[in-house]
Specification:
Blueprint (H helix, E strand, L loop, with lengths): L1 H24 L9 E9 L11 E8 L4 E8 L8 H7 L7 E3 L7 E6 L12 E10 L12 E8 L4 E5 L5 E10 H4 L4 H4 L3 E3 L7 E7 L3 E8 L5 E10 L2 E7 L2 E2 L3 E2 L3 E9 L2 E9 L2
Length: 279
């Protein structure tokens, strides 16, 4: 009888021990809040070799310093001189605004839909918006250009930050809204937004009218919430504007028939528009 009791106690103790180990190994539940971030900054020359000409990068990193996505690369063939961006991204410019070397310093605005370079929604937590520019050949032995980072917490709370000016970065404003907060059901009507034909088989035409010149982002998402295409990501003029989508993703591959969503971000607000692709 004593042996049975001892064996039972040993069994319970071992079971409890492994239960504690298993519980410790199970990570806490990770949240994935959909949302939209806008960030703007005015760069200011540091009077280096080629001033005021400059190359610039704006990208996102997570709290562990891992590269997430590039949002703006203005460098043309001189990307190598954006030393910090290159070290972080390894030249990854997927879904970023790209262009030639800038002739002057100016205000820059980016939109981030909280997805990585593969289009997948990133987990909640702390993220960093990085900005770097240079007016010299920084990759050829010259000093690295000025850079700065702005940290915010992606989650279920709205974030609005007016960042203090720095010598080379001014008028910095960051706004983040979870998706359920930022949706504006009247925005489609205000923009006279129209996507046609719907359903479409070959080409979706998108027309809209801006009350004033503004930065606009229009992207396409599948039912899982993955971003599969970005149609517009730029400052557009007042009045009538248009774009189109031929149902292509990646390197010219066509999407499968089904339901998709256009997510339109304008003036810090956004709305969703359902479209159907069928062959």
């Amino acid at each position: 009888m004593k042996q049975r009791i001892i064996i039972r106690l040993i069994t319970l103790t071992v079971f409890s021990f492994f239960s504690m180990i298993s519980a410790a190994q199970i990570p806490s539940q990770i949240s994935f809040t959909d949302g939209s971030l806008s960030f703007s900054v005015l760069t200011v020359t540091n009077n280096a070799t080629y001033s005021p000409r400059n190359v610039l990068a704006i990208w996102v990193k997570d709290s562990q310093g891992n590269f997430v996505i590039s949002r703006k690369i203005m460098a043309g063939v001189r990307k190598q001189h954006l030393v910090k961006w290159v070290n972080s991204s390894n030249y990854n410019s997927v879904n970023a605004i790209t262009g030639a070397t800038l002739q002057n310093h100016q205000q820059h605005t980016i939109i981030w839909d909280c997805r990585d370079a593969s289009g997948n929604l990133v987990p909640d937590g702390q993220y960093e918006i990085w900005v770097e520019f240079t007016e010299r050949n920084s990759a050829g032995g010259g000093a690295v250009g000025p850079s700065t980072k702005i940290t915010f917490n992606k989650g279920t709370d709205v974030v609005s930050l007016v960042v203090p000016d720095e010598p080379n970065f001014k008028d910095m404003v960051l706004n983040y809204s979870p998706l359920n907060v930022g949706i504006d059901v009247n925005l489609s009507l205000n923009l006279m937004f129209n996507a046609f034909p719907n359903p479409f088989a070959d080409r979706l035409n998108v027309n809209f009218e801006l009350p004033e010149s503004s930065f606009v982002n229009i992207s396409v998402y599948d039912l899982s919430g993955k971003r599969i295409a970005e149609l517009v990501d730029d400052k557009l003029p007042q009045g009538e504007n248009s774009c189109f989508w031929e149902g292509e993703i990646g390197s010219g591959n066509k999407i499968n028939p089904g339901v998709y969503f256009l997510r339109v971000v304008y003036g810090g607000r956004l709305f969703m528009h359902k479209v159907v692709f069928g062959r």
